[in-house]
C-alpha cells in the first residue's frame, strides 16, 4: 500500500469505477481499495489495475474465493473488515499483503498472532477514533493501523498524526452518490484536498 490516504470505492459499474480512479489519480491519490460490495467489483478491479501509477487493492474480502478473484483481476493487496484465518492464510500463501479488520484489542491480538503486522480498525469512529488507536498503540507497539469508517477531511489529520497509523481509508472521497451523479471533478477535488492535507 502506498499513500497515506486510501480511498474506498464501491461502484455499481466498472466504467464508473475506472473514471473515478482516473479522477483520484489526477488528484494525487496513488492507491485505491475497491470493495466487494457490488457485482461490478471484479471488473472494476481489472480496469483500475490497468491505470498506470495506481496501486489497486480489493476491499471487503470475506472469503478465499473473493481473494482469488481479486488477485486474478490484478489486485495488489486486500483488506477486510474482520479477521478470517482462512483468508489470512490464503493471502500469505499467495504472497499478497492482506490487512484484516479489528474493533477490539482481542481482535488485534488475534490478527497479530496470525502474523499480520498491519490491521484495519473498523468502524474507527464508532469504536473510539484516534484516542482508541492511541491506546492500542501503547499495548501493541509492533502493529500499524489503517483506520476506516467515519474518517473524513475534518478528522483525517488527527488520525494521521498518530505514528502507528500507516494510512487512512475513507469513502468520502468517492462516495457512491458522486459516482451516480457523474461528479468526477468533485472526486478529483476531494482527492487533491486529502492528498495535500496528508502531505502537510
Question: What is the gist of this entry?
Answer:
With 200 residues, the protein is of the alpha/beta class. It is 46% helix and 17% strand.
Detailed description of the structure:
Helix 3 links the parallel strand 3 and strand 4. Helix content is 46%, strand content 17%. It has a six-stranded parallel beta sheet. Strands 6-7-8 form a three-stranded parallel beta sheet. The chain has a single domain, classed as TIM Barrel. It has helices at residues 14-26, 41-49, 64-73, 85-94, 105-113, 124-127, 129-139, 156-160, 176-180, 184-199, and strands at residues 5-9, 31-35, 55-59, 77-79, 97-99, 101-102, 118-121, 144-147, 168-170. The protein is α/β, with parallel strands linked by helices and 200 residues long. Helix 1 packs parallel to helix 2, helix 1 (14-26) packs across helix 10 (184-199) and helix 2 runs parallel beside helix 3. The radius of gyration is 16 Å and the shape is globular. The two termini are 20 Å apart.
Largest sheet, strands/sense/barrel: 6 strands, parallel
**CATH fold-type name:** TIM Barrel
Structural class: alpha/beta
The average pLDDT score comes to 97
Instruction: Determine and state the CATH class.
Output: Alpha Beta
User: Uncertain spans, ≥5 residues at pLDDT below 50?
Assistant: none
Order of helices and strands: EHEHEHEHEEHEHHEHEHH
Shape: globular
CATH-derived architecture: Alpha-Beta Barrel
Physical arrangement of strands within the biggest beta sheet: 5-4-3-2-1-9
User: What would you report as the Rg, rounded to the nearest angstrom?
Assistant: 16 Å
The CATH homology group name: Aldolase class I
Helical residue percent band: 40-55%
